[in-house]
Amino acid sequence: MEMFWSSLARLSGFPAEIIILILVLISAGKRNWRRIIITVLAFSLFRLTGEIIKEGVASPRACWQEGIKTLIPCPDSFSFPSGHALGAAMIATIISLIYRRKLIVISTLISTLLIAMSRVAVDVHSPVDVIGGVGMGIIFGFIIWKFYWE
Fold first, then answer.
1. Residues of 60-87 as b/e, b for ≥16 C-beta within 10 angstroms?
2. Using the 8-state DSSP alphabet, how is residue 81 labeled?
3. Distance of CA 132 to the CA centre of its chain
4. Tell me: the pLDDT tens digits for 21-79?
């Protein structure tokens, strides 16, 4: 199980999120390039906002303590909110609101939960960090959908 969580934790992140977002919007027939570019830019801005909040809150990671072993290298950045959880929830919210199909909503929800759980499972985040990241991601995703896709 450790290999599953560490692989998932390594594969997720900002570059993967951008690629997934672009591919899903293009492949589902939403080829309005202006909207796609604005969505990716807004996504990136909100992802950066999460990093700014992280620096402002300055919550230390548990893995910075001596003797704590992680399944992946312990990041140098602060802990709250989880950027991976924030990005996954933002993508899930945007895609779910645009397409409103049960299968899409369920699959994006499951992927968000797995990514959030992976951050806790590899010991680089606490549950509070990922819950905060998911909450912010839902809010930011809703804002992007409301202004660019509704």
1. ebebeeeeeebbbeeeeebbbbbbbbbb
2. S
3. 11
4. 777 666 666 567 777 788 888 888 998 999 999 999 999 988 887 777 777 778 888 99
Query: What is the token pair recorded at 122?
Result: 């590899």
Asked if residue 81 has a cis previous peptide bond (ω within 30° of 0), the answer is: yes
Determine contact, residues 116/134, Cβ cutoff 8 Å: yes
pTM of the model: 0.83
Q: Is the distance from CB of 89 to CB of 66 less than 8 angstroms? A: no
Does residue 91 sit in helix, strand or coil? helix
Token pair belonging to 52: 């700014």
122 CB-near residues (< 8 Å, 6+ apart): 5, 6, 9, 70, 71, 72
From the list 44, 48, 57, 43, the residue with the least C-alpha distance to 129 is 57
Residue 4: CB atoms within 10 Å: 11
